[in-house]
Write a structure and sequence with these properties.
44 strands; mainly beta; Trefoil (Acidic Fibroblast Growth Factor, subunit A); Jelly Rolls; six-stranded antiparallel β-sheet; 622 residues; 30% strand
Length: 622
């Protein structure tokens, strides 16, 4: 592989006593100077990024990775590289400004019309410990790069993408070329920001120090942070837990299951591990959106088998040291340091992370969107994000970043809902399960005007029995009652085309709502994001890209154009699908209409007096 392009790096702070001399020599000098502590215009923080904090505490970063932001105040290089699937062309995704946030728009433009994967995650330190897609190992096959747009998020109000890592998705840097990472019994610390909702109980979605070769070389040859449901039996709480993978053992504390470790189940979790290399390690965790770190454990290493450590210095992200790649996870940022970091520095780093205001995009990981009950419970497979065929599907608490709660509406003549690569289907008797997708009638569903979801094969409707509990879903005769009403996301078809938003999945305020050829994403046949419309029975809205279908200026007159607007529950944003195929606007009493005789790409929709015989007013959610 060719060497990565040269990148600008953060430089060491200039000692105060030299500052005046540098000012005098500035005209002759070509070496830029970076200030120490003080206001940081790019971020508005006094301490800089996490690596600036750790450097000031004399435990400097030796590796720093993020797909969302710079982790050093002065960094202005690329964050990661994406590669197109159609022609293998690559593009480095950089920053909006020095020390700032990812320029996600360049990724969107470069990857338009195809699928991109992340091929390199760049190290932001001067060590150049860049991560590439991990090869096979003794415990797992070749890995794939993460799909580049599968985990949209926002950070400090900026659009960005995390790394969504299902099984067999991981990155590695061999210690043959890695520099600065701990070897033998040298001390080190590390943290990652991951998600506590997209995890499983299999081995091992790790971040940290691993073997030179992808094979198990014994206890103490790994030091990696892990957030998962591993060691769940007998643990405190429901997990997942911040843990340490030390090779041949994943530990919640001094033992595999440690009751002092209560776990972190948030959408964004800070997971921190530090190890002095000889007799002591610590685990800390926090909600990455707010609050301070909890120390889940700080004490002796688990046993003499790990005393001292025997670290080899490679770096892994998303797999185990022997390439055990059955774990799943998400990654947004993480660093490794030289030395055992102090509590004060750890606290400052957590404060810096919380100040970024990470938020989950409404679509969550991968494509698709939730199927919800009116009370706000989400349909999901029982268990974790790695459900197999035959797994029951139920309704429970929503987890924005959970992959098994995000259903793609594809098209087998009517809607087929898929999650985790499998289809919502009829099971034995009246059960509803995940199944391998075949296109059979029992896997086809027809959203109803009253909010019901009817199975084509049986003619019966999706039902939440008990309604106020968390049972598995059932099929029952369609009655239109509350237990059979769902908020679904599907394409809105019109005359062989789809209701679409002007632009390429951008969807700002006042973006025109139009008709366009139905476009599918390369993975799974899902409709393009701006052609997926969520029907919310609670407020009557039709939503896509986080905004609502709205008559321009909330107007009611014939000919009023239709656009996207911020959702405010106004009557103008309420729509009712009628049995005659029209979609009626509640505020105006007029109907969604295509003014053309036949659908033409780019034609803006508008309000017109309702006339079910007019072909321009026939719309179908399927």
């Amino acid at each position: 592989m060719a060497a990565p392009p040269a990148r600008s790096r953060a430089r060491r702070p200039v000692p105060v006593l030299l500052f005046a001399i540098l000012l005098i020599l500035a005209a002759a000098s070509t070496v830029p100077a970076a200030g120490r502590a003080g206001a940081d215009p790019a971020r508005g923080r006094g301490h800089g990024g996490p690596c600036d904090i750790y450097a000031d505490a004399k435990t400097p970063c030796v590796a720093a990775f993020s797909t969302t932001r710079a982790l050093l105040r002065g960094y202005d290089g690329p964050l990661y590289q994406v590669q197109r699937s159609d022609n293998d062309a690559t593009h480095d995704v950089g920053l909006l400004s020095r020390g700032g946030y990812a320029d996600a728009a360049t990724q969107d433009a470069f990857c338009a019309g195809t699928t991109c994967t992340v091929s390199i995650v760049y190290d932001q330190t001067a060590r150049h410990n860049d991560l590439t897609v991990a090869g096979p190992g003794t415990a797992g096959p070749q890995n794939s790069g993460a799909v580049a747009d599968a985990l949209p998020v926002s950070i400090a109000g900026h659009r960005a993408y995390g790394l969504y890592q299902p099984k067999k998705t991981g990155y590695r840097r061999s210690s043959v070329v890695t520099t600065g990472t701990a070897r033998g019994a040298q001390p080190e610390s590390m943290y990652e920001v991951a998600s506590g909702t997209n995890v499983n109980d299999d081995c091992c979605s790790d971040f940290g120090n691993v073997e030179t070769r992808p094979e198990d070389t014994g206890e103490g040859h790994m030091d990696a942070v892990n957030i998962s449901y591993m060691n769940g039996a007998g643990a405190t709480g429901t997990g997942p837990w911040v843990q340490a993978d030390l090779e041949n053992g994943v530990f919640q504390g001094g033992t595999g299951t440690y009751r002092g470790n209560q776990g972190d189940a948030g959408k964004f979790v800070t997971a921190l591990l530090k190890n002095n290399g000889t007799d002591r390690f610590a685990l800390k965790g926090a909600d990455a959106q707010r609050g301070s770190l909890s120390t889940w454990y700080e004490g002796p290493l688990p046993s003499a088998r790990y005393t001292p450590m025997r670290l080899e210095g490679s770096i892994v992200l998303g797999t185990g040291g022997d390439n055990s790649n059955r774990g799943i996870g998400s990654f947004f940022e993480g660093v490794m340091t030289a030395g055992y970091s102090g509590a004060a520095a750890d606290a400052l780093v957590q404060a810096d992370i919380a100040a970024q205001h990470y938020q989950a995009d409404s679509t969550g990981p991968g494509t698709g969107a939730p199927i919800m009950t009116p009370e706000g419970r989400c349909l999901a497979a029982a268990g974790r994000d790695d459900a197999v065929a035959g797994t029951p599907v139920g309704a429970g608490t929503c987890h924005t970043m959970a992959a098994d709660e995000h259903w793609v509406a594809s098209d087998f003549g009517t809607a087929a809902f898929t999650a985790l690569g499998r289809c919502l289907a009829t099971g034995d008797a009246e059960d509803v399960v995940l199944a391998d997708c075949t296109g059979a009638a029992g896997q086809q569903w027809k959203p109803q005007p009253d909010g019901g979801v009817r199975n084509v094969g049986t003619g019966r409707c999706l039902t939440v029995p008990g309604h106020d509990r968390r049972p598995a879903l059932r099929l029952a005769a369609c009655r239109g009652e509350a237990s059979q009403r769902f908020i679904t996301t599907t394409p809105l078809h019109h005359g062989g085309k789809c209701v679409d938003v002007s632009g390429d999945d951008v969807g700002g305020n006042h973006a025109a709502v139009q008709v366009w050829d139905c476009r599918t994403l390369p993975l799974g046949g899902a409709a393009a994001r701006d052609q997926q419309w969520t029907r919310n029975l609670g407020d009557g809205s039709l939503r896509t890209l986080g905004r609502c279908m709205t008559p321009q200026g909330s107007g009611t007159a014939n000919g009023t154009g239709i656009e996207l607007g911020d959702c405010d529950a106004a009557p103008a944003q309420r729509w009712q699908q009628q049995a005659d195929g029209t979609v009626r606007n509640v505020a105006s009493g007029r109907c969604l209409s295509d003014p053309g005789a036949t659908p033409v790409n780019g034609t803006r929709l508008e309000l017109r007096d309702c006339d079910a015989t007019a072909p321009g007013q026939q719309f179908a959610f399927n």
